[in-house]
Amino acid sequence: MVKITDVARHAGVSPSTVSYALSGNRSISQATRQRIEESIKALGYRPHAGARALASSRSNVVALMMPLRSGIHMPVQMQFAASVVTMARTHDHDVLLLTQEEGEDGLRRVAGTALVDGLIVMDVQLDDARTPLLRTLGLPSVLIGFPAEADGLTCIDLDFTATGEACVRHLAQLGHRCVALLGSPPEVYARGTGFARRTAAGFTAAAHRYGMSSTVLPCEPGRAAARETADRLLRELPGLTGVVVHNEPALGPLLEAFQHSGMRIPDDLSVVAVCPDELAENAAVPLSSVAIPAAEVGERAVELLMAKLNDGEVPDATLLPPRLTRRASTAPRDASE
Amino acid sequence: MVKITDVARHAGVSPSTVSYALSGNRSISQATRQRIEESIKALGYRPHAGARALASSRSNVVALMMPLRSGIHMPVQMQFAASVVTMARTHDHDVLLLTQEEGEDGLRRVAGTALVDGLIVMDVQLDDARTPLLRTLGLPSVLIGFPAEADGLTCIDLDFTATGEACVRHLAQLGHRCVALLGSPPEVYARGTGFARRTAAGFTAAAHRYGMSSTVLPCEPGRAAARETADRLLRELPGLTGVVVHNEPALGPLLEAFQHSGMRIPDDLSVVAVCPDELAENAAVPLSSVAIPAAEVGERAVELLMAKLNDGEVPDATLLPPRLTRRASTAPRDASE
DNA sequence: GTGAAAGCGCTAACAG
DNA sequence: CTGTTAGCGCTTTCAC
To answer: Transcription as a keyword (chains A, B) (predicted)?
Structure first.
């Protein structure tokens, strides 16, 4: 194995000079830098990762903890993982893959052994057991998603307030005057300051601004609950022509329920979903939707983490702007109605 | 940070004894082992990964290089990645994630810096630019899939010969007497000793054994080619009641072509596919199929790699037995025909 | 069965 | 702008 002393000898300088040339931590004359680079190339030198980590207390590896078994919507996960790895590489870091199942022990292990310099934790739940640990671990971390208690944690996710607004704007521009948001089950709203609440706030505010009449209705998952919710909605708001669904498990059942009630989509009812593109594309009627921008989330997460690693200040919350993709489920309101 | 000397002092032994207690590389009296374990727990000691890697020239990390963008069949990839990570952990190893795009440079980098002890390389092509490198890298590696020239490389994949046989056996048991294999495009067969050839061999041998009449037909991808192949097949083999398709891109077009020709599946024609479960499940008629056993491939790949890391001897080729899942596309041959 | 001590290859003061 | 030197925390001979 060729080591830094070999390079130093070959270039006629001291090992530290080679080290500095590599790290850029002090200025080197053009001439010696040149010779060093040539020697490195000539000898095929590569710094030993372990030695470097030991001496510098920096491994240049970040951990990515993600759910690897969740049967659902892997394309989003994959896209995310790809962008994390790619972006990490541009910052000269590698990515260690941890499964969600490793949980807190996994985080403690990679942090405690100094295997990694920082953590990216996906799929953070409102009430996530890992968040207290992340606060005390002493390693920089970035969470994908917002826990109920996000103070002191760096979190990133889609901007759900803006998402609610964007959905309403889309419907308003199509001429709809009476709209509803079908959101998460009641307990999610009750539970605290989750994304559910933010979507609803954005939705309601925008509806007011556009002078539309609006309703927000929670919805339990499952066929029966969906049927009931849809019926109630159509009964209580006879003028309803547009709905926004922000409830992935209830989405399919709700669509069925509407169609069962004789509402054709988009002829009688325009539907906007907040869900992965994958799902929206493959629905019976392809759904106009706002998706989680996985690739951008991954990139930004890495950038935030890198900033923290270089003791940069980063915002606690990063909210990414929604992008609404128009598909077949929304249409102009029929003026004759 | 608590280090090995702290543990040693706390336990009243020397650092080397703690090290040996941890590694099990020499016998320790029950009593001191006990004390050491208690001290470790009491102090919350975790060995520094970098220091350990430097001193032992073992990082206890393996690299997994996989395609992270291939829009196609991520569930298989994910399942595979999950099983690799999980199995690696049971061998006290972590997994560094590399994208396919990093290619040879990526492998050279993680090997050259001693970041990893071994490599698992997915999605190996018949003519894969990485294989010559893997031969000379001096790090143990395991390939998923067989390159044309596999000598001296440890490869693992589905047993395609047995797969061809299993498909025929299934059709034979349903009473079919005249079957065809629709395989890869001609150039794949011409190119060498790929899986295509093995499936065909197994298919033909089994058909003979069962006294069935059989044909093997290559098939180009694309609508037009599929139509043509299907037509030709039905024209030349009027008695055909069963086909095996081992050609993922052509699968959809072929099914359409058969149906366009008035063949109902499975009433007139039984179809067995060699493709991911995902694809088989979501076809218009759910397809009886043989899939790549992703989880098992991942587990075995890690086991092979671990064996190589401990200078164990491992077979060059590991072939996993096929499992045929029966779905709606195969039925008993109509006796009245 | 246990200890002492010499590195593993690199970085980062400190010194000029 | 460059060199000297002292570790980083662990493993592993070698010695008892």
So the answer is: yes
Predicted confidence at residue A329, as pLDDT, reads 97
Residue type, A127: D
pLDDT in tens, A280-313: 998 889 999 999 999 999 999 999 999 999 988 9
Average pLDDT over residues A128-153: 94
Q: Is B53 in Cβ contact with A50 (below 8 Å)?
A: yes
Query: Per the structure block, which two tokens stand in for B124?
Result: 């190996």
Q: Which among B48, B110, B115 is the nearest to A113, CB-wise? A: B48
Q: Using the CB atoms, write b or e for B176-208: b if 16+ within 10 Å.
A: bbbbbbbbbbeebeeeeebbbbbbbebbbebbe
* pLDDT given for residue A72 in this prediction: 64
Q: Which residues from chain A sit within 8 angstroms of residue B47, using beta carbons?
A: 113
Dihedral sign from CA coordinates of B315, B162, B284, A258:
negative
pLDDT of residue A185: 81
For range B290-312, the mean pLDDT? 95
Q: Give yes or no for residue B141 having a pLDDT over 80.
A: yes
The pTM score is: 0.92
Angstrom distance, B133 CA to C12 C1': 36
Q: Which of residues 6-45 of B touch A (CB under 8 A)?
A: 44
Residue B186 has pLDDT above 90, yes or no: no
What's the confidence (pLDDT) of residue A71?
Answer: 63
Quick one: angle between helices B15-23 and B4-11, nearest 10?
A: 100
Is residue A192 scored above 60 in pLDDT?
no
Q: What's the confidence (pLDDT) of residue B195? A: 79
Distance, CA of B251 to chain centre: 21
pLDDT for A196 equals 82
Q: Does B162 touch chain A (CB under 8 A)?
A: no
Across the strands, what pairs with A66?
A99
Domains in chain A (CATH in brackets) are 4-56 (1.10.260.40), 61-158+294-320 (3.40.50.2300), 160-291 (3.40.50.2300)
Shortest Cα–Cα distance, B258 to chain A (Å):
24
A88-101 pLDDT, tens digit each: 999 999 999 999 99
- Our measurement of CA A110 to C1' D15, in angstroms, reads 36
Over residues A252-269, the pLDDT tens digits come to: 999 999 999 999 999 999
A74-90 helix and A294-309 helix, angle to the nearest 10 degrees:
40
Distance from the Cα of A275 to chain B's closest Cα (Å) equals 18
Is residue B316 within 8 A of residue B307, CB to CB? The reply is no
